[in-house]
Each structure stands twice: as C-alpha cells, then as structure tokens.
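## Example record

The block below lists the input lines for one assembly entry, exactly as stored, with component labels intact.
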Amino acid sequence: MPTENLLSIKDLVLHFNTQKGPVQAVDGVFFDLGYKEAVVVLGESGCGKSSLAKALLRLLPRNVSKYGGQVYLEGNEIMGMDEEQFRQNIRWVRMSLVPQAAMNSLNPVLKVGDQVAEPMIVHHGVKKEEAYNQAAKMFQHVGVPVDFLDRYAFELSGGMRQRVAIAMALVTAPALVILDEPTSALDVLTQANIFNVLKRLKKELEVSFVLITHDIATSSELADRVAVMYAGQIVEVSDAHRFFSEPLHPYSRMLMASVPRLRANVEPEFITGQPPSLLNPPKGCRFASRCPKRFAKCTEEPPVANVDGIQVKCWLYTS
Amino acid sequence: MKSIRSFFSELTHYPSAFVGLVMIILLFTFSIYTVFALPYNDAISLWRGDENVWYKTPKTAQPAWVNWFLKDDLPETFSFSSADGDGVKTEEYSNETNKIFISFPFEYNSKDFPQEVSIYFTSEFVQKEPFVSVKVITPDGREIKVGSFTVGRTHTYRFSQDQKLQRRLQGNTPEKGIFMLLPSDTEQLTAVPGQYELQIEAVAFEENSTVDAELIIFGKVYGWAGTDHRRRDIGIALMWGAPIALTFGLLTALGTTVTTMIIAAFGTWYGGWVDEVIQRITEVNLVLPFLSILIMVGTFYSKSLWVMLLCVIALSIFGGAIKGFRAVFLQIKEAPYVEAARAYGASNMRIIMQYLVPRIIPLLIPQLVILIPSNVFLEASLTLVGLGDPVLPTWGKLIYDGVRNGALVQGQYYWVLEPAFILLITGLSFAMVGFSMDRIFNPRLRGV
Amino acid sequence: MTTRDVLLSIQDLHVWFELRRFGFGHAGYVKAVDGVTFDLHYGETIAIVGESGCGKTSLMKTILGINKPTRGKVIFDNKDISAFHAEDLRLYRSKIGYVQQDPFGALAPFMNIQRILEEPLIINGIKDPAERERRVRKVMEEVRLSPPDDFLHKYPHMLSGGQQQRVVIARAIILEPQLVVADEPVSMLDASVRVEILKLLRGLQEKYKLAVIYITHDLSTVRYFSERVFVMYAGNVVEKAPVNSIVHNPKHPYTQALMDATSDPDADNALKYRELPAGEPPSLVNPPSGCRFHPRCPQRIENLCDVEEPQDLQADDHLVACWLYK
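Predicted structure tokens for the full assembly:
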C-alpha cells in the first residue's frame, strides 16, 4: 500500500437493521486524504455522512447488519484490527472525532480542563499533571484562554465550548480529526472564528481533517479536497479548486447552484424532488430520478470515472 | 385509528406484551362472565350467608383438583335427599301409624375418611313428633346401629356429636368408625371403599305425617377452589374478586393519572401563583401519612370499598406524579408548535387540552397500565390491615380470612395461595403490557 | 410615503425581562430589545439580521403579541396592540402569519396535516367543515403540496424537511394575513431545499402583497428576499439600509464584520484567514456604555464611542447608529 496518503478508504460499507429493513447508510464510500490536508465530505441530511464518521471510528450502534471495506490509516489497514487493538492504537490515538453538537456534549459536572486531559490519561497513560499541561497547550492552539481549564462547560460561550471540543480531539496529537458539522449551530462570526482556528491548526500541527458538513459555503474555508455524498454513496471526489469552480457530477453542479451567494448576483436554483430512501435505494445511479441529464444508461450502476484526477461516479464521464 | 393499528402491530414485537395482553383479555372476560353468571346480589347473599346456606359444603376443604396430585384421592362431598327422590323411600300406613323406610345406598371409594357425616331431617306433623332410627350397613356386611330419636320439623343429626355412637364404635369418632374395619389394630387407619347403605326407619303417628331425610357425607375436597372456615365456596370470592379488583384498579389509576395530568398541565401553562399553589399542595400532600389517613377513615367513617377508592384518588391526585408531569409539560410548553398555536390565536384552554395534553398521552398510558396492578395490590393490602370492605368478596379478603384463621399454620395453603396467585397474575399481565408499551411509546427506552 | 401606508410601526420599543434571584428579589433586567424604532409598509419585505442573542427573536415575539413591551409601542394598522383585549388580540394575531425555524418542532406531532392546517380556521371561527377543507386544499396548492390528498392525512414525521416547512408556511398564510413573520425559515433545511422555500415565500409575498419580516443570521439569503435590511446587535438596530446598498457598501463596522465573516463557496477561502472583531457579544444585562459594539470595534473613537450612545445617522441611503458617520 502506498503511504503517500494518510487515509485511504475503499468501498466502505455500513448498513443498519431497522424494523422496516436494512438501511444502507454508507454504501461504497471511497476517498483518499494526504498528510496535513482537509477533505470535506459534503452531503445533505440523511445521506449517511454522519454514519460515515461512525464507521471510520467504529462507533457502531448495535443494529449494524453489514460493516466492511478497507480503511488504510498511515499505511495500515485498520478494518481488520480487533476491537481492543483498535481502541488502543487507533481511536483517539491516531484518529479522533469532534462529534455533532459537540459543544452541547461536554460533561456539565466536570471542569473542561479535566475533560480535555482525560484522553491523554486514558491513551498515553501519563500523569494527571502532564495531561493538564498538554491540555493547556491545546487550549492555546484553539484560542481558549488557559485559565478556562478550571471552568465548567456552562460558564463558556458556544464558540468557546466548540473550541474545547476541538482541543479534546487534538490533545493526543492524532494524525486525523473527523469534524462532524463543527459549526452548524454557531453564529456567523463564531463560525468564521472556528474556521480560522482550524486553518491555523492544519498549518501548525501535523494533523489532517475530515470535515463532514452540509454547508457548502463555509466548507470552502477549510477544503483541500471535496467528496460529495449522495444517498450513502460518494458521487464525486475532487480537488477543492476545481470543485468550487467547476464541479463535474450533475448533483454537485446543482448543489453548487443552489447556494445563495453574498457577493455574486446569481439567482440560486433548487433541486426538485427528494433523495431516495436508504431503505430501498433505486438500482443504477441513485440520483437519476432528479438528474436533468439522465439517459438510458443511468438505470445501471455507474462506474467511477477518472477525469484528470477527479473521480466521478457518473455515466456522463465514461468514454 | 392508524396509530392504534400500528401500535398493535408494534406490540407483536414484544412477546411479553402479547402474553400480558392475552392474560388481561382473559381477566376481563372472566370478570364479565362472573358478573353475568353470578349476579351481584346472588353473590353477596351467598357470601354473607351462614350455615343455612352453606350446610352442604365441608369446612376448609381443599379444592377438588388436589386429587390430581395425590396417590390416594381425598373423598368428595356427596349428598342424598329423599325429598328430591334420591335413594328409596317407602311409606306404609296402618293403625294410625305411618311407617316410613328410607334407604340411601352409596358407593364410597376413598381410602380417606369423610370430614363429617350429617343427616338433616324434615318432617310434617300436627302434634306428635315422628320417631326415627338410623343404621348403616357396611360393605363387609356389618350393621351399625347409629341411633334412634324423635325429630322435630327440622332436625340435624351430626354423627360426630353423638357420644353414644362413639362409644359403640369403640371410641373411634363416628366418621372414622363407620368407614373402617373394626376392630382395627393397624396404625394407619384407612377407610374401606365399597357399597354402603344408610337405612332410616321412621314411625310417624299421624295420617299425613311424613319424614324426609338428607344425608350429607362431607368430603375433604370441594369445588375448584375449596371452602373457607365458614363453609363458603372460595370460588365465589375468587370470581367476584376479579371485577372488583379491576374496577378498583382501573378507576383509581384513571382517576389519579388523568386528573393529576390535567392539574399539572394547568399549573405549568399558567405558571406563576397557580403553579406555586399546586406545587405547595403537592408537597404538603406528599408528607401526609397515606395509610394512617385511610385507617382513620376506615375506622371512623366507612370501610366501604368505594369510600376507600375515593380516598385513594383524593390523596393521590396531588402525588409525586404531578412533579413528573410538570417536568414534561415544562418542556412541551416551550415547543415551537405551542408557540405557533399562540401566534394564531389559540386560547389557553385549547392549548392545554389540544396541544399539551395529547403530547403526554404516550407517557401516560404505560404509566396508567402499570398503576392498575399497584392499585389492585393496594386494595388487597388495605384489606390485610383490616380496612377491607365488610360486604364484598375480594381477593384481599380471602387472604385476610385465611391468615386470620390460621390457614398457613394448619396447612390450608390453597386458601391464601389461590388469591395470591391470581393477584400475581393480574399484576404480571398489566406490568408486562405496561413496560412494553413504555418502550413502544418512548423509543428512547429501547435497548441500546 | 404617507402614514396611511404604514402597516406596522415600532416606536422606541423596549422588551426587558426581569431577572430574579432565587425566584424572588430583583436582580436586574435582560434588555433583549432596547430602543428599536422602525416602520413597515404594506407589502414590504424587511430582513432583520443579527446573531443569536441580539434580540431579534424577542422583537419578533413582541410583534406577534407573545411578549409584552416594557416601554414603547407596537402600532399595527394604526392601533396600539398593547391596548388589545383577548378578542382584539385574537383578531390581530389572525392578521399575522408566523413561520418558524424548526419545521418539525413547529408542527404538533400528533396531528395530521389536515388538522394542523384547520386549527387556525377553527380558532378563528370557521365552523363549516366543508369550507375549512376547501381552504386547506387551496392553501396546500399555494405552497405546492399537491395533490393535497397525498398529504392531508399524513403526520409531520412522514414528510421531508422541505415539505414540513411548506406546511408551516401554509398554516401561516391560511388566515390570509397582512404580515408574515419568518424566523430563520430555512436555516434548518438542506441547501437544495433552502432556495426552494425562499422562492416559495417570495412568490407568495408577491402574489398576495404580503408584508414580510424575515429574520435571519445569514446575510447571503437576504438579497433574494427583502427590500430593506435591519442589522441588530445587542438589542439595538445598528443599521437600516436597502438591501443592495448594504450588500455592496455596509457602513456600520458590525455589518462589515458580518459581511466579512460570511463565506461564498470559493476554494481561495481556505488560503486566507478572515479578519474578525475580537470578543463576543456583550451581556444584555449590563451592556457596555456608549456604542454597544465599541469594545470589539476596530474603528472606535476613544472618548466618544465608549461614552455616548450613537444616534441614527444618515449616510447615503443608510441609517447607521455609528459615530463614524457624524
């Protein structure tokens, strides 16, 4: 396996059993991510992007019916690891998570400093004092005053709590941090502030990000690469510059066209119809029913085409 | 409608709920059957009846089905009445005397002795009482003279109380002496099964005077439920206990939860002093001694089940549940759809009844179902501390009577265990349904 | 414009909430709305932009008659709403539609769509069920929930977010209001649906000449919707301007900061840091003296901004509460 990529995901699958049948939340996800890079996983609600975060970190609920594929982290295949190996060597050691609404998931009765130091104690077995020093260092990185270590979560503003959650993910110096909607409940200025922090972290620390979000405009703040998810599948993996100027997949194009812009005077367009149910997704291309460019072939499962380094899962780009 | 159907389809995912539901349905069917098969007035007059009503049943007899588990069957109770045409009765009139001969041949087929043997005589005469003499012919051909005496219009002859007979039977009590081989040296006394015959010769001294006799051989088992110390059929109390318990349980559960919920809804919605008053009343009520108050009401006012029911409801309305409902309502009150309702002009009343209350019903129903058995148990417990309804046959009453009369000391376990078991079944069935409903209505409680 | 054209007039409105210590004992006020004045004309759309906690929600709830003003007036159609009694208030509320942020939360989960839409009609005295159903169907066609039969008997959780928000909009306009208050109507929706809902609202606004107050924190959607924009900060309106001039030429330093913080999808964003004012919005219990933005303002004038409260100053076609434009 080549090691120029920090993370390489191939055909990741995660299905859930529900009373109505299996939900194909993640169904053949692939993308690569380099060192000190950020990839944005863009998708609308219900496309399986949060399940992707769970699948990567193996934070699985009990009703999983199918879980498979290959994930290489720093050249090592991690899907084959047993649970204990994964816990000791991967989760929160090499790969950590800022969960959705993380700012509201801090423990209200513990000082935030203790919470940030906790992963150090658990995973690196260091003394409490040393863990605290590391936590203080992380606070500086994310722009929280060090004396906040002794405060409780409710004494902090939303933006500060979000930074604390990020510090908690970074404290063990992982190579990869997964950010699940890190700014969705925050105000514009706070959002912009958090992105400034993330940009600085990417530059200053040896860390890569997987940013999972539905917010296209702010995602461009951090993106080196973009992976677009639709109905449990990746439909396009592209370089950020090319994606934000000229997306290839029809879904990506329509998604981009739907973004209201502050600075350009273009009328946004919406996508008619609704994404298919993940319970029983249609055969062939899952976007076909809403796609203005669909043709006969779209009833078959589209292959992943490579267009100058951009991977597109669409029949339009197969020659 | 649709949601009810989906609820039932959901319920099939929980086998325990299904079993519980079947059991509840059976309980209700049983109750309805009871009410029709044994109307209230009949049941009460039977239950309140003395030995005149229950003269035909043995005392504290075990239920008949214990014989299924015994090697040697216990004797059952049987009776013969000449007035009803059982046995043979002949009359012969001559010389101003009417000679009456009554014979009851019977098959006795237990190795155990009967509990008691009695003959009830009835006679018709104007002045002179008829004279009867009684004897028994045993399978081995012995002829045991039982006694001779005059009978009034009604006369009860109890074998066990005849000292002379006991002496004649070499000191054995009559119900044993008659049915065993004499003299007996074996330590284990057993009855001799076979064809017995009781013969009564009566002489009446007037033309239209006659004598009728009813022989009752009291066994040691009776009916499907057994009898108590007053010879009453426990089955009556077991049957009527069901509708009474269900009514009590349902009414108290409904009465308390629904009123509590509505009070909580009003308090939370209006807030301010309304809420304050409700909260303070609740807090005072919570420290009131529930049982003591009930005992006082029972002692000084009335022990009627319905008075108790009202007291239980009154004392539970401002119970701890109000705090729970309040917490939920405080959340619902802030829901955007309630704000929307205010914005399009819904009145306070409408918001409470149409917007707040329906939201809590999924929480309420399981709670209500689980509350039913605890109220059934409460009724039984009240009876056990002596607050039982003096009239009604209830399960609690059975346990109370049983314990009071030493059923557990004397090995009459059926007397206590039968009502206890049926209480248990009731509690179990409601609990199984209630807890499953809780999981259906509140998906957060489902297994992780 | 003459006064006859004014539908809603907000005059020096203060909405303060009393803070109590241990349930009693005065402990100050949360000055959620602190001196807001504006006029809204018939058929006009305005946007109120601000961050959470700036008082925009309290302002909106006061307009809806849910909060009571502490000081100042809300005049609707030349009538002061604080003088309204129950029946007047109901009538007043029927003239205002309300579109909420969270469409799922805004719909009672135990009512089907028909019942949800009938509720305002029932409350406002339309007794004939056939008439109600006719109006429900009509309004469902308006919001393009068609055919209505597909939706009437569904429950909110069976609909997608966009469809739920259409139901909320349908409910807001079913009483044929003169004013619709839309509180972040699209912020919880997906990008592809967002535009659809905004366009639907705009279509209805144009068709029925509705006055609309569009409350949002997202400047990028403002230009597709409103004629004028009011920017709120810490209980005050700091800038009022027509939408195009505010987008191209924001005057107030806070508006400028909001503009700077708003991203358009552009890969170059990742290459630069954004210039942002330091700190966080002030407490509304003890707001800073003078201009409330002055502790964070990069252009503050010492001994002026921190002392004297700025008045509304005219700068081009903007009204700006900032001493820079004196």
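Chain A is about 30% helix and 25% strand. The CA atoms of residues 7 and 73 of chain A lie 5 Å apart.
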